[in-house]
Amino acid sequence: MGQLRALWVKFYSIVSYTPERCRYDPANPPGFSMPLNLLFGFAATFTVANLYYNHPILNVLADDFGVTYEEVSVVPTLMQAGYAAGLLFLCPLGDLFKRRAFVLWLVWFTGTVWIGLCLTHNFQVFMFLSFLTALTTVTPQLMLPLVGDLAPAHRRATALSIVVSGLLLGMLIARVLSGVVTQYTTWRDIYWLSFGLQYLILILLWFFMPDYPSTNPGGLNYFKMLWSIVTITIHEPVLVQACLVGFFTSSTFTSFWTTLTFLLSEPPYNYSNLVIGLFALIGVGSMCFGPPYSRFIIDKFVPLFSVILGEFICIMGIAIGTYTGTFTVAGPVIQAFAIDLGLQTSQIANRSAIYAIAPKARNRVNTAYMVSVFCGQLMGTAVGNDLFAKGGWISSGSASVGFIGAALVVCFSRGPWEKGWVGWHGGWSIRRRDLGPQKSDVEEGEEKKDESLDDDESAREKMADEMAGEPTRGTETNGEVTEEEKEQQGTDSSLKPDRQEVAGL
What we know:
Order of helices and strands: HHHHHHHHHHHHHHHHHHHHH
Largest sheet: none
C-alpha cells in the first residue's frame, strides 16, 4: 500500500510539473503562436473523435458483444449524454482552476480509462466506460476559452477557427477512420489507435501547453457558478442570439449526416458502408476554408455579418441537396460541402462574439453556448430520422430548410450594435469598431504628422530667409539713400525678427 501511495505521489508530481518555458510570468505573459494553435486544433480533432468512432460500426459491436441492434444503439446515446454532462458540470470549472493542469488530468483520465474499452468483453462494462470517457472528453471546450484569452483581439477569430475546424474535423474523420479500419481489421484496433492518440496528446500538451492563472483566483462557489450560467444567459442578448442560432444550425448538421446513410444505401445509389463513410471527406475539404475566411472576413467585420453569411451558405446547400438528392448524387455532395462550411463559419463568428461578453466567465459562457448546440444536435437527429421514416429525404431536408430559416429570423431580429434584445439601433455598419486603428493607419498618420512638421519648419526657414534678405528701398535708387529713407530703414529693421529667432520658432 505504501509503495502504491509513493508511486501515485511521484506520478502526480510528474503530471502536475510545468516545464520552465511553459510557466506563467506576469511580466511576460505567454504568447499565442501558430504551432500552439495547431497543437490545440490537433488535440481537439482526436479528442472529440472519441465520441464518434462507434457510429459506423454499431452492427459490428452488436455481433461481437452478442446483443441486438436496439441494445447497441444505446452506446452513442450514452456517450452523447456523458459529453453533455461534462459540458454542464466540468467545463465551468475552467473559470476556477488553472487550465493547463485541469486539461492534462482530464486527458490522462480519458486515455487511461479508454484501455478498458479496448479490452472488455462485457457489454455492460463497455457502456459504463463509454459514458465515463465521454464525460471527460470535453478538453477542447476548455481550450477554446483559453484561445480567447491568449489570442489578440484582431486575430481571435482566426485562432478560434483552427480549433473549431479541428472539432468538426474530428466528428467527420472519426467515421472515416473507424469504417475503414474495421472493414479490414477489427473494431478494437480503432479503439487502440484512439488510446495511443490520447497519450500522444497528453505528452505534447505537457511539453508545450502554457500555464495560465485562474481567471478567478479568489475562488468561486461551485453551485453558484453553475447558477451563474443561467443568470449570464438571461442578461446577455448577444449570448441568447448566438445560442438560438447555434441550436437551429447544428440541428441541420446531425440531421443531414444521419439521414444521408439511409439515402445512399437505397436505390438509386445502393452504396456500400465504406463508400458512404468516405462522404465525410467532402466535409473535411470544407474545413480548409475556415482559417483564411476567419482571417479576412470574421476578424475584420462584426460577427453577425459572418453568421448571416454562414446561414445563407447552409440554406443554399440544403435546398440544392434536398430537392436534387433523390436523382443525382451531386446534390448531397454540394450539401455536404456547404453545410459544413456554413456551420463552421457560423460557429466561429458566434464564439468570437460571445467570448467578448465576460472575460472572467468565458468557460461558463462557452458552456451555455455548447449546451444549446448540443440540444440542437439531438433535436436534429430525432426530427431528421422521424421525418425520413415518414416522408423520405425531401421531408427531412425541408425541415432543415425551416431550421435555417428560423436561424435567419433570429439573426435579423437584432443588429450588431443593438444594446437591447430586439432592434437595429446603433447603425447598420458591418465594420468592427473595437480594434482601434490598424497598423497601417497609425503609420500613415505618423507619416502625415512628420510631413506637416517638416512643412512648418520649411515655412519658418523660408520666412526667415526672405525677411533677412529683403531688399531695402534704397537699392532701388542705385545706392542713393536719402536721410528720410535711412530713418525709415532703421525703423523697419528694428521690427524684423532675427533670422535665428525665426528659425528657432
